Amino acid sequence: MSTHVASATGSQALLSPRVVRSAVLPVIQQQISVLEPSLARICGYHLGFIDEHGDPSRGGDGKLTRASLMMAVADGVGLRPEDVQSQAAAVELLHNATLLHDDIADTDELRRSRPAAWKVFGASLAIHAGNALQILGLRIVVDDSGPGHKEIASSFTEAIGLVHAGQARELTLQPGSDAGIAAYEQMVKEKASALLECSLGTPAMRAGKPEHVLAALRGAGRHLGIALQISNDVEDIWGDPAVTGKPIRGDIERRNLTFPVLVALSADSPAGDRLSRLWHADSVTAEHLQALADLIDEAGGRHTAQRLSRSHLDSAVEHLGRAGLSPTATAELTTLFDRIVNRAA
Amino acid sequence: MSTHVASATGSQALLSPRVVRSAVLPVIQQQISVLEPSLARICGYHLGFIDEHGDPSRGGDGKLTRASLMMAVADGVGLRPEDVQSQAAAVELLHNATLLHDDIADTDELRRSRPAAWKVFGASLAIHAGNALQILGLRIVVDDSGPGHKEIASSFTEAIGLVHAGQARELTLQPGSDAGIAAYEQMVKEKASALLECSLGTPAMRAGKPEHVLAALRGAGRHLGIALQISNDVEDIWGDPAVTGKPIRGDIERRNLTFPVLVALSADSPAGDRLSRLWHADSVTAEHLQALADLIDEAGGRHTAQRLSRSHLDSAVEHLGRAGLSPTATAELTTLFDRIVNRAA
């Protein structure tokens, strides 16, 4: 991955995952280390620093997507990496807090190809661990005194509140053509876009950039989040578990109303009608899930989802272009946006 | 209750629950009302504004202990109620967030004489609702711009982080004489004292009082929390469910290592030895729980707990005296401290 970015920009790429990791992971590890011991252990496991026995581990520590975005924008507005280093750690702590709680709420048993934290340590401690991660992230921005700190702290707390709203909205989605799809879009703007908007916007606030720059960056984050979530929905049904780190078709096994499903259920076609009947059957056999996947595809769910994801990715790049970042940073971020949405490519 | 306070102070008591309620509840209700609808409903239920069907309700909305303390101290340092009104709402939102999550983590089925929120709405949505309450509380202090706002926001985030640590530590307590009791004390300082310290300290920060005033008030909160928690532990075993709003002996049914139990288990006496043997039996019959309660009493757990709770209440009042608040406020707070710890009296 680092080779790819370096060749795309022709420079010592700021986006190099190695650079981001070496800036952010020590901050996160230091934060975790002062937690109450059982919380430190669960959070360390969830973040991939240790395995379930407490031994050092190098797997499972995510892609630091949000930290990478923040640090690339920082470069594009003339900041040094250390100007947003702790905020980049904070957004990753918050993102991971939401994953830890969401896995409990959704009874998802795998995260990044390893057993989810609640499966290893129990749901009770995992609830407190998710809270601990959330507060670690918020304490960084609340205790910060750098330029724009008040606006940044406010945007972080607003964003994490929106993620909780989106997580709840996702649990209460109902099928039913337009209303269902509208609720889905609202849910995604909260659950997937909010922290991305925050990641892209933070360096602009730190650098004291004018409102239109912040608005352009936040707009990019909003569209990037929608593109990413719809792409994840497609990956759940037709993706490669080795890439997603999750069992295939977990969403349709649980009958989650993801975007391709909502599109297909509202399709006025024989495949859509057949899907509506089979969707409510209890079966979770591989054959039944395959039949559902085929009907979703046939009713247009896959095609419409892929097209809409691409369209939101294009909009994200378009908004990014309006932010007036340095050409190098714009190019790096464009590459990064594409890699985030099309990670399997 | 309001009559009691009014007669104790001989004035239009600031501590009157009615006054505190009318200052704080509208702020909380307004905050809740803008949440995602399913979260608004769960939080509204948990806070006692509505019943499980969504109809208006007047039961189950707690005692606003932390808001009452904050507003009484505010009066004592020369602030108006509106100077800390939103912070008083914030501390109640945070406290309730911890209760909502703790009920899930502990599978407690009753809260304030009503089914716990997770029993009514399911654990998944209740996890997100607890997060939503937590963020509502933190947003109030993060977005505030009044005097001392940065120090106040920092103390709130620190305090809620300590509560999570204490909740986790409680789940991992081990019996075993001194080590067990030391871990218990650490747990209580985090779980019970942190938000009380924050409640008592906030008005001093807002009023720009010197460090020794803040230290005295925080010290009062620390001892008050320990006195309250030990008193709650005693109430669980020998209290009146009509007062506690919880089934009696829930803690010993789940074999939680509360203070009287830790004391009794480490007693070098026949009753202590007998308790150690019976404690690990699976039985949860009323007879068995009664036998455990009698042995805890016989081994000195009840007496030691009551004595220690009283001693910490005395220390809380002593620290309060050093804060140099107005005599009226000091008298009101002394009455309030006593009522908080000895609510059944």
Q: What is the chain-wise order of helices and strands of chain A?
A: HHHHHEEHHHHHHHHHHHH
The CATH homologous superfamily of chain A corresponds to Farnesyl Diphosphate Synthase
Question: At CATH's second level, what is the architecture of chain A?
Answer: Orthogonal Bundle
CATH class of chain A: Mainly Alpha
- % residues in beta strands of chain A: under 5%
Quaternary state of the chains: homodimer
Q: Could you tell me the mean pLDDT of chain A?
A: 91
Number of strands of chain A: 2
Fraction in helix of chain A: over 70%
Calculate the terminal CA-CA distance of chain A, rounded to whole Å. Answer: 12 Å
The largest beta-sheet of chain A arranges its strands as: 1-2
What Rg of chain A is obtained from the alpha carbons, in whole angstroms? 20 Å
Shape of chain A: globular
Number of helices of chain A: 17
Biggest sheet overview of chain A: 2 strands, antiparallel
Q: Which two chains have the most extensive interface, and how many residues on each?
A: A-B, 41 and 40 residues
Tally of separate domains of chain A? 1
Runs of chain A with pLDDT <50, length 5+?
1-12
Give me the secondary-structure category of chain A.
mainly alpha
Protein architecture, described:
- The structure is a homodimer of 345-residue chains.
- Chain A is mainly α and 345 residues long.
- Chain A is built from 17 helices and 2 strands.
- Chain A has a two-stranded antiparallel sheet.
- The N terminus of chain A is likely disordered.
- Chains A and B meet through α3, α5, α7 and α8 of A and α5, α7 and α8 of B.
